C-alpha cells in the first residue's frame, strides 16, 4: 500500500465485510479495526482485502512500542524482487529528473518524482519490516517531507515556466517518457511471480497501469509540444502529475503525524 487510492480500496473492502470506521495508515502500512480478536468478521475482512489484491498479517496490540515481526510472505526471492523494483524506480527516477532538465520538461520532472516516491516507499517497506510502528511513522514522515519539498519545487518551477515559456525538446522528452513506460512494465514483470493468486497479480498490474498512465500522459504531451511548438502541454501535464504526487505526500504526512502522536507515550 503506497498511496491514498490503495487505502481507499482497503477501506472499501473492510466496509464490505461489515466492519465500520477502519483506521488505515499509509505511513506505517497498518490497518486498525475496533473489533475483538475473536470477532468472526475478521475472517471476512481478510478475505475481502485479499480479493482486492492485498496481503494482511495480524499484529500484537502493543506493536506501537515493539518491533514488528517479519512478514511470513516476504521470502528471500520476494525480497530480492523488491530490491530490483527499488533500484529500477529510484535509478530511473534520477535519470528522468536529469532528462527533464536537459529537455526543459516540467512533466518529466514531475513524473520522476513519482518514480522516486514509489521507490523510496518500497525501500522503507523492505528496510522497516522489523521496526516498531513509531519508527516506521517517523521514517515515513521524513521521507515524505523531503519528497513533498521536491514536489513543491517542481510546482514552483512550473509556475515560473508559465511566464518564461522556455522551449522544450519534444524528441528527448518523448524518448525519456517511453523508457519510463518500459521501466514500469519491467517492475511489474519482476513482481508478478511473487504475488500469489489472481487478485494479487491483478493488483500489480493495476498499480503499474496507474503509473503507466502518467508516463503515457508525458508521451502525449511531448507529441503535442512538437505539433504546437509551445510548452503548454508539458506544463499542464506537469501540474496534474505534481498535484497528484503532492496529495499522496500530504496524506502520508498526515497519517505519519497521527501514528507518531499515538505511539509517543509508549516510546
Which secondary structure elements does this structure contain, and how are they paired or packed?
Elements: H1 4-16, E1 23-25, E2 30-32, H2 41-51, H3 76-103, H4 106-127, H5 133-164, H6 170-191, H7 198-228, H8 232-263
Antiparallel strand pairs: 1-2
Would you write up a description of this structure?
Helix content is 72%, strand content 2%. It has 2 domains: 4-51, no CATH class; 76-266, Alpha-lytic protease prodomain-like (Up-down Bundle). The chain has a two-stranded antiparallel sheet with strand order 1-2. It is mainly α. The two termini are 25 Å apart. It comes from Aliiruegeria lutimaris. It holds the Pfam family Cation_efflux. This is Cation diffusion facilitator family transporter.
Radius of gyration: 20 Å
Instruction: List the total number of helices.
Output: 8
Write the CATH architecture name of the largest domain. Answer: Up-down Bundle
Poorly predicted residue ranges: 63-72
Strand content: under 5%
Question: Percent of residues in helical segments?
Answer: over 70%
- The 3D shape can be described as elongated
CATH class of the largest domain: Mainly Alpha
> How many β-strand stretches?
2
